[in-house]
Input
Amino acid sequence: MKDRPVVLKLGGSVITEKDRPLTPNLQAIGRLAEEIARAKVSPIVIVHGGGSYGHPIAKTYRIAGGFKDQAQLVGFSKTHEAMVSLNRLVVENLLDRRLPAFGMAPSSFILTSKGRIQVFQGELLTRAIKTGLIPVLYGDAVLDTDQGFAILSGDQIAALLAVKLKAERLIMGVDVDGLYDSNPKTDSSARLISRLTLEEVSELANKIGGAEVSDVTGGMLGKVSELMAPVARGIETVIVNALKPDYVYRALKGEKVVGTRIEA
Amino acid sequence: MKDRPVVLKLGGSVITEKDRPLTPNLQAIGRLAEEIARAKVSPIVIVHGGGSYGHPIAKTYRIAGGFKDQAQLVGFSKTHEAMVSLNRLVVENLLDRRLPAFGMAPSSFILTSKGRIQVFQGELLTRAIKTGLIPVLYGDAVLDTDQGFAILSGDQIAALLAVKLKAERLIMGVDVDGLYDSNPKTDSSARLISRLTLEEVSELANKIGGAEVSDVTGGMLGKVSELMAPVARGIETVIVNALKPDYVYRALKGEKVVGTRIEA
Output
């Protein structure tokens, strides 16, 4: 590829109403599509999460735990279909702004093993980028060699794409300002960490260990652990608040923006 | 695979209102889902066409002719998105009857060259069948090594799947009773051909040759030529009228049914 692409992840809690099943945040989707169009970054690949589209159905049918009985198969498909409908909203909003967004279904070309990506048939994705399209992927219900099926997060896909495509930059758009030294939702003295090294991420992970039930960073540690592979390969990785106007725009342009930058 | 699957193609002119853009034939989709559920054939793979979903948008943006300018990329994606929305209707109707239908996006794992399938990453599809799912594919706007992109027909996909999966039977559900010796829509003396050998198909193709502008068989010759590969490999191949109740059901059960059987 001539130019190294930017990989942009849009969190499920950004593009959906977290607490209302199957409810998109159309205002956020529209604004983000506009920011992406205005930033004119090319090539770019977009991955989005499921939020209130994926989780409720996946939970009802216990998809994340893998195949236990035949009745789950309908739920597996329904989880995927819900994600497809959310993907169509994102793609349509981008198309409306004349961006050649192109929905690609992870479950049609990615296979996991115990929930981790094992087979990634990326030829079509690479070719889509070369053709000038903007692939738009999503967290999906996928087949799994070990447990029959699994839930593959958009975070894992975005991190893998950043590595595989040797991305220029990986931007994680979330619903908070970044990583905190304690949970900002319960601790008013929590401070935003603007820079974090791989070593500090490991320390943070160890500190939490088995003792604490909840993730003190405000649920961000799982996300950060996905980012370790791209960061270790020298890919510029930043977590920004995608609910705040122009944060994603600035991250796309490589401008200064509030958030957490993770470094090797 | 333990059992050889049945491949069922549902024509775009069956599941959509041919003359009304983006209008599904919900009555036909519902009835066919019921017939498929009642037939209890397993494993089974379903492929459907585009009808009035795919063709109008593809035509507007001249997708079938390949990449000429950047503006077509939006049309390429819109063609795909229209097919996804039709696929979702088919899948939902099957799920409603407790069938574990699973939509798979051809453009995410099939690459063509001059409109003919060149790369077919079928690992996920095979695994989906083994898991107990019913893959539901569709004619799609796909990337093409030679012309940038192309329209890949459901007929071509169905024929390839029949060969690759060593299908027990390939059923082509169309909007007429089968292949005629002349066009039944303009010639009242046209007679249905109930059996046809590969040799006779070739003769028919030669007879039409370059002299005649239209396809005297009623537009079925292109379809029949796709079927030559599976037929040559000994796969039982039959064309039936999917608009007539229980024709597809009987074909699925291997029962006697009005139609055209093509033999080696």
